[in-house]
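In response to reviewer comment 3 from the previous cycle, which asked for concrete evidence that the modeling workflow produces usable outputs, we include below a single protein chain processed end to end. The sequence was submitted unchanged, and the resulting structure tokens are shown without manual editing.
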Amino acid sequence: MRYAVTHKTTLAYEQPVSISQHVLRLEPRDTLRQTMLGFDLDVDPMPSQQGNRTDFFGNHVHHLTIQTPHDTLTVESRSSIDVIPRESEIAISESPAWDQVADSLLEQTMTPLGAAYFAFPSPYVSWRSVVQEYALPSFAPGRPVLEAVMDLTSRIFADFEYKGGVSDVWTPVHDVVEMRQGVCQDFAHLEIACLRSLGIPARYVSGYLLTHPPPGQEKLVGSDASHAWLAAWAGDLGWVDFDPTNNLMPDFEHVTVGWGRDYGDLSPMNGFITGGGTHTVSVGVDVASVG
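The workflow returned the following structure tokens.
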């Protein structure tokens, strides 16, 4: 399946900004089933300096310096991506036992893609006992790890209400457990914390999701949004993705931008400015299937 993704961010400032620097993580990466075909980035006003690199986890990062005074900044990325569906369903009941996976972590090599980097607390993912207590009913001793993670995914989907405005990126995971509400990044952070609390490595995945309009209605341009899910480490089976917001294992309708320990490693846009005062942010995302 081929997708065209447009991600437009507009920042409107109360006062002129004299200089700004930004770090962008908007360019999707290649994976085993995903191939980047093209990426363009338009910035207004035009940056005086612009560069790109890959970060510690292999994600694409773009850097901008803008020295033209401005009261509005627009950043628009356009990506073309080919995503291949899985050849067959994953036999989750045939995966290794979760406690065996946790025990084998001690044997993992600490490389940039090593599972051990995703097994510990991180700035946006820490936990208290209530998190592990919530996770444990899915993890009977000896249960296949992917079966257990899918059960946990389904429980989060059933127990938590998707609701914007009740949390932000700094909301602690244990608060999400108490509120039983949040958005996709909250649910991803929660499930990651649950897994790490039991010794199972889990990483945060950022990207896009092809959405479908209600029956009989046309899809609105710009009505999509950035999405977040997670991947769990399953020993010899490697990393397997789970989406607790939608109670599924992602396939060809998810587009991966990158992965890291938590949202902080994958914020689409951050940086600093001189001047500006207060500001507003508007974001429009469109994910279109083009073949």
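The longest strand covers residues 2-24. We consider this sufficient to address the reviewer's concern, and the full set will be provided in the supplementary archive.
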